[in-house]
Amino acid sequence: MEKQILYPVEVPWQISPSHDFIEFIGEESEVKIKFLINYNAKTREREINHLCKQYGNEEKIPDEIWNRIGHAIIEINFAQVHFFSKTVSQQEFGLLDPEKFDLSQIASLDGALWNETNICPDPSFYEVINSNLKSRLGIDSLSVRHWLILGHDVFFDILAPSFNWEVV
């Protein structure tokens, strides 16, 4: 069996590897999934500087605000969904199975590169280029793409043309 090639989706965040998804909603042909995400160190530093101007210095930033610096909750929305599944990972710590997936396009999490480009090298959100799932389901439309989201203990497979995301 040919390995499925994963390409990281170009986003400025990484799905938190230590938290599972917050919520998912599937209605008709639409799917919405909420995750806790982490931003890069540069964004975190920018948030701290902004809050220091607001509160005077780091020590005066309230704990409930300090603990959220560099994090957010996002909602990823897929419309015109052809297929959706949530699968519990069989790999230790939710790692992708290297027997099934070609991981060569996923860079190691390089903080300097992430800070420079503001694109996370490994966001835990991928497009599957040569999808076995699309083939098994008989979907050959080039407009339908296979998305894979890696949560802490759960994978989400979505077949849909596109997605959008927003901070909630």
Explain what the structure shows.
The model has no long low-confidence stretch (mean pLDDT 91). Strand 9 and strand 10 form a beta hairpin. This protein is α+β, with helices and mostly antiparallel strands and 168 residues long. The chain has 4 helices and 11 strands, in the order E-E-E-E-H-H-E-E-E-H-E-H-E-E-E. It has helices at residues 41-55, 63-66, 111-117, 132-136, and strands spanning 4-8, 13-15, 23-27, 30-39, 71-78, 83-88, 101-102, 125-128, 145-150, 154-160, 163-167. A 6-stranded mixed beta sheet has the order 6-10-9-8-1-7. The radius of gyration is 18 Å and the shape is elongated. Helix content is 18%, strand content 36%.
Share of residues in helices: 10-25%
Spans of 5+ residues with little confidence (pLDDT < 50)?
none
Give the class from helix and strand content and strand pairing. alpha+beta
Instruction: Strand order, main sheet: write it out.
Output: 6-10-9-8-1-7
Largest sheet: 6 strands, mixed
- Anisotropy-based shape: elongated
Report the average pLDDT across residues.
91
Strand content: 35-45%
Number of helices: 4
Order of helices and strands: EEEEHHEEEHEHEEE
Radius of gyration: 18 Å
**How many strands?**
11
For the record, give the distance between the C-alpha atoms at the N and C termini, rounded to a whole number.
40 Å
Give the SSE map.
Layout: E1 4-8, E2 13-15, E3 23-27, E4 30-39, H1 41-55, H2 63-66, E5 71-78, E6 83-88, E7 101-102, H3 111-117, E8 125-128, H4 132-136, E9 145-150, E10 154-160, E11 163-167
Parallel strand pairs: 1-7
Antiparallel strand pairs: 1-8, 2-4, 3-4, 4-5, 5-11, 6-10, 8-9, 9-10
